Amino acid sequence: MYLAIQIVLVITSILMALFILLHKGKGGGLSSLFGGGMQSNLSGSTVVEKNLDRVTIVTVIIWLLCIVLLLLFKTFGW
């Protein structure tokens, strides 16, 4: 069980990084520094962004649960 939670933690970590990088920039910052500000008007839709937000939030919740479960396993020696 401990190994399975560790594997889920690694997978959700990779997915979380990927989903965060898929979000479009919200204004001035590093995304507009590299030309992301010009493309933000041309690509993406609000439905896609909302779904990406939901998937990212679910991934973060699973990631946090894995961390808490691993801490409980380590603390109580299950």
From TrEMBL:
<dbReference type="InterPro" id="IPR004692">
    <property type="entry name" value="SecG"/>
</dbReference>
<keyword id="KW-0653">Protein transport</keyword>
<keyword id="KW-1133">Transmembrane helix</keyword>
<dbReference type="GO" id="GO:0015450">
    <property type="term" value="F:protein-transporting ATPase activity"/>
</dbReference>
<keyword id="KW-0812">Transmembrane</keyword>
<protein>
    <recommendedName>
        <fullName>Protein-export membrane protein SecG</fullName>
    </recommendedName>
</protein>
<comment type="similarity">
    <text>Belongs to the SecG family.</text>
</comment>
<keyword id="KW-0813">Transport</keyword>
<dbReference type="GO" id="GO:0009306">
    <property type="term" value="P:protein secretion"/>
</dbReference>
<keyword id="KW-0811">Translocation</keyword>
<comment type="function">
    <text>Involved in protein export. Participates in an early event of protein translocation.</text>
</comment>
<dbReference type="GO" id="GO:0005886">
    <property type="term" value="C:plasma membrane"/>
</dbReference>
<keyword id="KW-1003">Cell membrane</keyword>
<dbReference type="Pfam" id="PF03840">
    <property type="entry name" value="SecG"/>
</dbReference>
<keyword id="KW-0472">Membrane</keyword>
<feature type="transmembrane region" description="Helical">
    <location>
        <begin position="51"/>
        <end position="73"/>
    </location>
</feature>
